[in-house]
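Preliminary data (for renewal application), FE2/S2 (inorganic) cluster complex.
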Amino acid sequence: MKAGGSSQLSRKSETTFAVVIVTEPKSLDPPPTTVMVCVNRRFRVDEASCGVRGSEKLADALESGIQQRRINIKLERSICMGHCLTGPTIRLAPGGRFFHGPTSEEIAAILDELEEKCGTLDPADSDAPLFMPGS
Ligand code: FES
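Predicted structure:
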């Protein structure tokens, strides 16, 4: 060892790097398999219903978008889901996420969410999205 601490001056500095990868936590919930659109219609003017508020057109727009984008989800037109005062009511199942009173302008955003959560079918896949009888 040399006098005066010169050995410390000639020592190469060492730097340690740590790589930290931060990812979004994945939801433990399974992706929805069905988007339910209430098309219930009441003919009494003093009782609210989704059908009277235009839910059939929303269902048609969703159905068309699902087919065009080949989103891996089925659409089901349903009876009353008990959210009549805030309808038209759309629900993802399983899971129960509700959309209350969406407008036709908001359908694209719903389709974006469905595509993100459910993915799309391979174009080579012969199984087209399944629509329930009567839908
Ligand atoms: S009529 Fe649609 S939720 Fe009741």
